[in-house]
Amino acid sequence: MLRLWLTLSLTVIASLMPALGHQQKAAITTVLFNARTHHIEVMHKFYLHDAEHAVRVIFGQHADILNSKETQQTFSDYVAKRFELLKDDKPLPLSKVGFEIDGKFFWVYQETDIPVELHNLSVRHNALRELWPSQINTVNIEGKDDIKTLTFTGATELLSVEF
């Protein structure tokens, strides 16, 4: 009986192993209104496994996001070019703050000053979406009223929130 249980358990575990190595094709971005610094802080979080696959397709097989600062910078620039915050249909000037690998994630950081009289905000987040149509980019907007969530899927190009 114990042998049967062990065999079944190992079979189930083995069947789940391929799922652990699959791409998630999802990214989470936090847009934080920081009243202390008077900045909007943008923090993009990508699964490192997704970023590894993406850089090889976008920048070539030689691209190595794990060991190359140049590839990390290039991917960070790629993300920054595909993300916009807009006030009254005009892009806010986002500065690049940096990037890092933290565990199984690749982070990209940006910021801008909080505009005066901001009643609504439009967001564009197209990172990896031209590569994988199933890519889901979620944006959580925090620090101004309740948390608001925008989800970019399919052909969605621009989403907006009101404050």
TrEMBL record:
Superkingdom of the organism of origin: Bacteria
Which interval of the chain is the signal sequence?
1-21
Q: Which Pfam families match?
A: DUF6702 (PF20420)
Q: What keywords would UniProt list here?
A: Signal
InterPro entries per record: DUF6702 (IPR046525)
Protein name (record): Orphan protein
Taxonomic path: Bacteria, Pseudomonadati, Pseudomonadota, Gammaproteobacteria, Alteromonadales
